[in-house]
Design goal:
Layout: H1 7-13, E1 18-23, E2 28-36, E3 42-52, E4 58-63, E5 67-69, E6 74-79, E7 93-94
Parallel strand pairs: 4-7
Antiparallel strand pairs: 1-2, 1-6, 2-3, 3-4, 3-5
Length: 96
Amino acid sequence: MVLTILPLELIDKAIGSKIWILMRGQTEIVGTLRGFDDYVNLVLDDAVEYSPDVHGEICKTKLESEILLNGNHVTILIPGGDGPEDSMATNFKAVE
């Protein structure tokens, strides 16, 4: 007997926990998943964005409010993830 889990069921199990999101381009976001819809539009709290600046340095930006991510720009979701040790999330400079 093979246990089958659908993608939206996996995302549903991640509600209320940390999630690491890789977006199109070079942006990564880590935050607490609050909700989603059938198009994988995501609502996050306590989110932090990691993205490269024009010089290739990784910038960390704390997103102060609840955010909505468009599902068309999401490429990978990692429930429970804080980012791997060698990800952009570990090599950043703070944005003032």
